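Quality-control log, excerpt.
Job 1 of 2 completed; input and output follow.
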Amino acid sequence: MAKFEMDTEFVRKLAQLLHETHLGEIELADGDKRIRVARQTVTVAAPAAVPVAAGTPAAVPAVAAAADNDLAKHPGAVKSPMVGTAYLAPEPGKPNFVAVGDKVTAGQTLLIIEAMKTFNPIKAPKAGTVMQILVANAHPVEFGEPLMIVE
């Protein structure tokens, strides 16, 4: 059996990539060699979708795709670091992490995104005020999609 040589610098780069992208893990394979780097994530019960009664205004305004592109360029846009399902509360029946008008601190959890049964907290990149929430609870999001505006 051949000895497996570990490239610790490569492992450090993968760990840095996890930190920068807020992903839970990265796994690579090359032939019979595999490497998996994971970071601790917060796992919570999946919030159930709450139906909105007819005639009740939606919590998230409908925004055209062109407007999404403009919002993605906003300096206060908090963008999704992954594809998944966005949840605004930690679990069903609990209050949302934040609401429009709330003051937030850098690093405060704004929402969670479930990807591959892992719940990833999306944190405020800076202190400020939540000006807009652009996603609805329990709705799918794409990589780079604007989730909130924090000014």
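Job 2 of 2 completed; input and output follow.
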Amino acid sequence: MSPECLDTCGPADTGLIQAANVDLKAFTEGFYQDICGAKLAPVLRNMKRMRQLGWWLEVTTLLIPGLNDSPRELADMAGFIAGELGADTPWHLSRFHPDYKMLDRPSTPQATLLGAREAGQAAGLRYVYIGNMLGPGYGDTHCPGCGVAVLEREGFHITGASLKQGHCPSCGEAVAGVWA
């Protein structure tokens, strides 16, 4: 999107869009140029602008073995999200599976996804999720105050919810999100 397009969509409280999920495919220009035929800088600029407009923003990264999953790149990406978009920005880490035009890579190892989640948490992100792989609590939302699971998920299904008007029922801490 161009800056003009974002501004035309307007602020969350009066504009056309209130929320977005952006794929941050990698954190190197090389990946964006070689794999996507695009540039990283406009993606980063747009995410910052979306946040300035007050949009609820979530970030998704598909971790592809050997292309965008180095510990350094993940730490840098997590640092950008926390520092520029805010600690309450959810980061969805998705497991890659060989398909279509990229059959030369294995599925993302569990250890890589867990390491990426740790990098996000170390950077200060309060909501880091692992997707495309079942595991204990990978998709759950935990209270940033006391750590209790306030939304439990399996795949795309909510299996348990204890939020009370956007707050943790155990400690009363506000849980970031858009709650209907």
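Post-run check on job 2. The first helix runs from residue 3 to 9.
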